[in-house]
């Protein structure tokens, strides 16, 4: 029998796979490992890479699979939780990939699969900024924008288990086209992808900016840290664009506040972690735009687990049902 105190969590992302052995009582990591996610990998290859990361994390912790109660995996896309299958992962170019079964068979312990946002929300709920709060919304701002909803201590997943897609609420009817194909989504205005597109457009118009050398123009990518550095150095182009993106985010948050009336909103993800100004403007704008009673009441805070939310939250999948009844 495995040890109930420990579980392995795997954060399977678009660019990296991070695994860790997690103490489920304290949320502490006792061993971690990282692997790159290859693009255009074979379906078999990805499960092998997940297993390699799990092996390494166990080894670092000085444990074997029999020492843990199970393995949880957070995957980027839509998942079938019962069957443990990644149904659709656009960022990793995968469809209908069985993950839980092969991993469970390989190690002889239970394996549970969840969606990355669901899992990061679970991490914040038990060991991060969601502690002591039974109804809150986690919003993660990075390449895209996703959110997890905790209602009376439980995740609200919705009829098709796709609730929380706050990135695709329509902010501007007939506005900019979003990655999802629709027009005017919040994500098309407030994500790092949106910020990067606006910066590239500004540079192409010949606007002066210190960020010019930081943009990968072939891929159209830019790191959150480079954006933060440009703001700190007083770069006008970048500051103007990020201000506008954060204001859009604030409008999105006001929608959450008015509609859902949460006790707390937790903001996380690469953009929030790296760019302080973005958080501050989004908070101000959320309060300014929301209805007064709900807007005054809501706490708006930063996520606490950072990079580790995915690993810790995935490990919690293993015991999430028991935990939901045992923890406050
Ligand atoms: Zn969209």
> Largest beta sheet: what is the strand line-up?
3-2-1-4-8
Strand content of the residues, in percent? 15-25%
What is the CATH level 1 assignment of the largest domain?
A: Alpha Beta
Which architecture name of the largest domain does CATH use?
A: 2-Layer Sandwich
Number of contiguous helices = 12
Residue runs with pLDDT of under 50 for 5 or more positions: 323-328
Please identify the structural class as seen in this structure.
alpha/beta
Number of domains: 2
Unique bound compounds: zinc ion
Mean pLDDT: 91
CA-CA gap between termini: 27 Å
Helix content: 25-40%
Described by strand count, sense and barrel closure, the largest sheet is: 5 strands, mixed
> What's the CATH superfamily of the largest domain, by name?
ATPase, nucleotide binding domain
As an assembly, this protein is: single chain
